[in-house]
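Quick one, T. Sequence first:
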Amino acid sequence: MTRIIAVLGGKGGVGKTTTSINLGAAFNYFGRASTIVDTNLTTPNVGLYLGVPVVPVTLHDVLRGKKGIKEAVYMHKSGTRIVPASIALQDLKQVDPKRLSRCLHGLKGTVEFVFLDVAAGLGREAIAAIKAADEILVVTNPELPAVTDALKSIKLCEEMKKKIIGAIVVKTNPKNADIPIKDIEEMLEVPIIKVVPEDRAVKESHVLKDAVVHTHPRSAAAIQYKKLAAELLGVEDYKENVEREPTSVWDWFGKFLGFK
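Structure tokens:
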């Protein structure tokens, strides 16, 4: 059975795309197949972040009825499956977001999980993605505008009778004047299931066109994304998996020889 999980947050720039990509990569890390679908039809970023900004078939083509969604699935070099949206302005014409639910049915049975990278705001694109999803993950920063918009998204999901798994607070930094996690949880009225620190490795992963889970597996952000995936999947030995990852040339050599 395929579970469709929408990753949303309301405000733009909070880390929805980064979270979608890294959760998909982390689920694959634990051997659970997933596909990331960029449902941000106006300003898509999944393809940009993963080095495939222009592809022959996009979600826009699927929504226009020109192609089937399986034709729009691409395998990233890391093994992550993605369905990019088009960055071309002209492709916005004659695209109906309401067809998203119907189109996503084509992914049923192909993978265990589908992550929807949801557009910012509460417009037609975001609402269509929420309707198409089985469950919701909310992403926010520890800043008041982001938390406020996340709350609006949560209220909309509740009105639509959607199951909210919880909230993820990203880009936290003790040196900044962040809103305390406890206060964010009280404001959102949903559990904070993971806190991902601000991490330079995330920006470097964008430059390298891959998930930080792959480019910097020992970074603070990568470890938290893997821990989150493990908790969502019910993987009990995830700490062992993370701790055993090689961190140097000698570690890799030791692992090759069977000493790690």
